[in-house]
């Protein structure tokens, strides 16, 4: 059974988040360029590290998971009881999961909003970690910017994480995105996600979430 990493608890205390209850979601890029990271176990380790965050302040101890390329799949939630071989079992060996195509982020983002705002409406905040290795879809009929702006008055925070050294397009400009009620998104990139320590990863993941929580409460979103 996985346990809450000590590093998560330290970061939560440092950022005064230890008493926060939140839903936690993980959106995983499964485009063609991610193939090797799925095959060699890196993505499984990412799931386990984010699950520790969910264990720390999720409302039910579950980590909700999506994968996407130019399609998306909403997967079974993962818990401390069934995280072992989750990626192999639920993704790689699951023929119903579309994989290794091209990027189309808006489709899965809309489904995240559907789950947390329509199917499970709540004043409990949702913290969504969105893993991407570049090649972000530009423009189209439903651009990422519009989705971020549109959801800025909702109890949901987007934490984008770029892995590798690709061009992350619009994600790099999230901190300056205009037209939002609250700054509801953050982005950072890591050249090698395996080499970053737990302490640094959790510190980066939870960097802007506390400020968002404060502002969301002040403006009546929470």
The helix count comes to: 8
Q: What is the rounded Rg?
A: 16 Å
**CA-CA gap between termini:** 32 Å
Helix content: 25-40%
- Ranges where pLDDT stays below 50 over 5 or more residues in a row are none
The biggest sheet amounts to: 6 strands, mixed
Helix and strand content put the structural class at alpha/beta
| Percent in strands | 15-25%
What shape does the CA trace take?
Answer: globular
Strand order of the largest sheet: 3-2-1-4-5-6
Rounded mean pLDDT score = 93
SS elements, strand count: 6
Could you state the order of secondary-structure elements as H and E? HEHHEEHHEHEEHH
Question: What would you note in describing this structure?
Answer:
- By secondary structure, the protein is α/β, with parallel strands linked by helices.
- Helix content is 35%, strand content 21%.
- The chain is globular.
């Amino acid at each position: 059974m996985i346990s809450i990493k000590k590093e998560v608890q330290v970061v939560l205390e440092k950022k005064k988040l230890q008493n926060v209850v939140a839903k936690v979601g993980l959106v995983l890029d499964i485009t063609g360029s991610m193939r090797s990271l799925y095959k060699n176990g890196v993505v499984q380790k990412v799931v386990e590290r984010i699950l520790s965050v969910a264990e720390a302040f999720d409302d039910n101890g579950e980590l909700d998971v999506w994968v996407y390329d130019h399609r998306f799949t909403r997967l079974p939630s993962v818990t401390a009881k069934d995280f072992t071989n989750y990626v192999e079992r639920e993704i790689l060996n699951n023929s119903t999961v579309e994989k290794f195509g091209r990027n189309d982020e808006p489709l899965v983002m809309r489904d995240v909003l559907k789950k947390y705002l329509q199917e499970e409406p709540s004043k409990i905040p949702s913290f969504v970690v969105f893993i991407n290795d570049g090649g972000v879809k530009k423009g189209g009929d439903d651009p990422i910017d519009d989705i971020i702006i549109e959801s800025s008055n909702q109890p949901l925070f987007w934490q984008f994480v770029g892995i590798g050294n690709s061009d992350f397009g619009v994600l790099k400009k999230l901190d300056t995105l205009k037209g939002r009620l609250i700054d509801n998104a953050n982005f950072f990139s890591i050249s090698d996600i395996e080499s970053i320590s737990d302490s640094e990863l959790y510190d980066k993941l939870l960097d802007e979430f506390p400020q968002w929580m404060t502002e969301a409460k002040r403006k009546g979103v929470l």
